[in-house]
Amino acid sequence: MTSQSLPEPVHVIGGGLAGSEAAWQLARTGVPVVLHEMRPTRTTPAHETDHLAELVCSNSLRSDDVTASAVGVLHEEMRRCGSLILSCADTHKVPAGGALAVDREAFSGAVQDALLAHPLVTLVREEITAIPPPEWSSVIIASGPLTSPALTQAILELTGEESLSFFDAIAPIVERDSIDFSKAWFQSRYDKGEGRDYINCPLDEAQYEAFLDALLAAEKTTFKDWEKDTPYFEGCLPIEVMAERGRETLRFGPMKPVGLTNPNAPHARSHAIVQLRQDNSLGTLYNMVGFQTKMTYGAQKRVFSMIPGLEHAEFARLGGIHRNTFLNSPRLLDERLRLKSQPRLRFAGQITGCEGYVESAAVGLLAGRFAAEERLGSSLSPLPPPTTALGAMLAHITVGANVETFQPMNVNFGLFPPLELPPRDDQGRRTRGRRGKSARKDAYGIRALADLAAWLAG
Fold first, then answer.
1. 170-322: which CATH architecture?
2. Contact 327, 156 (CB under 8 A)
3. pLDDT, tens digit, 9 for 90 and up, residues 159-173
4. CATH 3.50.50.60, domain 7-164+326-414, yes or no
5. Which of 150, 164, 171, 325 could form a disulfide with 129 if both were Cys (CB 3.0 to 4.6 A apart)?
6. Which pLDDT band holds residue 379 (cuts at 50, 70, 90)?
7. In angstroms, how far is the first alpha carbon of the chain from the final one?
8. Residues 136-161 pLDDT 10s
9. Separation of alpha carbons 424 and 443, rounded Å
């Protein structure tokens, strides 16, 4: 295709996971892209670099098991759709049991290098502070959970929304060499993956109760007046908020002691266990799984040093909290992620009300494909079937959720159309190869990938 025959560029606002994936999908189909990223011109409270697709919270893209989890199905669907994010994640993964976790710096560097090397991608380092002008006839706004105040206000005025925000929290990262392995040990829960993918720190009942008391009494971040009514996202609650819900909540959540055996005390039963997951390919940094927090830095050091094995822990990064931004998408967006009142504008990523790295990138993938079809003058392909993870999430965001109660959502099998139940045998029992939840999840994955293959072929 010559430069004279190239279509007009699509403008993508935001160089996070969704914006990077959208830009890649456009460029790989022959559509020029202008990718606008405000960092380093304007920084955010959570980002530490100016890299595209920087991971600001965990380094895990969660379960990679296509037979057991909806996000694992979504991983595989994105791979089959030519996802840049999944390709770079697979290339730079680190041990994490059954999860797909990455070396965060190598991962974001690979995404950025791929985009900068593509001849149809132009990266512009600038902040977009207003709704783009009409001459930008196709725009994808993927400005993410940390959309700048000026653009947030412009979106509010355009959509008539009262608020776009909720709070999200970040877990601390510990230097491995500072962990006491006379108390901690390597093991994956139920020995999944390599069997040694996590560092485990055990607490007996007295230690757990003392830790809980200190956690609840610790000094917390004080929000500004305009932040105080912003709700949390249920899937990423600060650990102290979970603790406030009951003294056993953590033991049945991020500190559950099941599926693990302490080789340092094989006959002792742990009352609770803190897990740390590898955060970089060198294995020098580990993040505290499920330990998102709004404690002050001083309180974090004091309280976390009460965990056996972390008494002298050195932190590469302490936890924090930041404000996320999302639209009431079922009210505002059509089924192809276009703003109903201005169809030249699409939205993608967490700003649409999906939650999670993979989900954000997946919505970027869809937005890029939809925009490419329009720009190339192609007849619009059918939407991804709702039986796929991509289709189920898209349907939830655009038409499936209740407008009055819409909140950010991770992909889950509850978003999929119900499976047909197997026939009953002579005794009235359901016939199936595997039983219960395992059979159900496996069947969802099999159906999703079969339907995705048919969609891609069509």
1. Beta Barrel (2.40)
2. no
3. 988 777 666 667 899
4. yes
5. 150
6. confident
7. 24
8. 999 999 998 778 889 999 999 999 88
9. 17
